[in-house]
Model the fold of this input.
Amino acid sequence: MYEKVKNILTAASQSNTAVIAFNCTDYIMARSVVYAAEAVHTPVILMLYPEHAAVYHTTGFGNFAAMVKELAEEVQTPIGLHADHDYSYESVMRSIQAGFGSVMIDGSMHDLDTNISLTRKVIQNAHARDICVEGEIGHVGMAADADHAKTDLFTKPEAAEKFCRETGVDSLAISIGNAHGEYKDTPHLDIRRLEDIHAAVDVPLVLHGGSGIPDEQLLVAFSKGIRKFNLGTEFLSNYYKAVAEFSAKNADNPDPVKILQMPEYVQAKLQPYVEGRLRTLCRF
Ligand SMILES: [Zn+2]
Done:
């Protein structure tokens, strides 16, 4: 069933764990996540990274929101919908108008005061419409640039406290040794810093750049205030592998409509992966 992200975060918090938010590009990925969640009775969040719609045209904004809500009603397990990184007031409004009940404004590339004023402006509008807003403080950079080792990008607890107090943000993405994309070396989360941030603020904390962080570190982080965990790169990589495998298996198949068998073939590969992540990391 379709559920507000805010309620899913509260449930994760009560179980002292995190919900996994999967970046999905289309119906095959979305359906794989929804049915995996149902199979293991664990709530999930489906996210659209706006660039995937705006630049790569994997889906449309309104289509994606409607699709997730429709899929959610096919199952009993709570399913949330969230728009990942928007970087401007205008693009957040586009996500809200498309039907997303939970959005992210990422002002982390700006200085603290600019980030606060941008986030506050988004929240004033979003909260009036009962929309939940995730902000970011410190900067979660790119693994390819080894940003996860640049401690000057890490979130400072006192800045996080000021940011939450002055914006009224609903959840907060933090930088504690995580980065987007594929890590070249094993990342090491700064758990001490996470504890300090968790003590300084009372909103759910969000960990981006989840692909490649060892499970034992993730489980510690989830027990110390991480309530939402974003997974994209690893999931997309598995999607590509499944499509390539389907193509290879059907190279000599003369059926002109063989593509119709692709979605179910791919879902049969992706769903067990998602179920495995949920079972290992966050049953609640
Ligand atoms: Zn991110």
Summary: The longest helix spans residues 262-281.
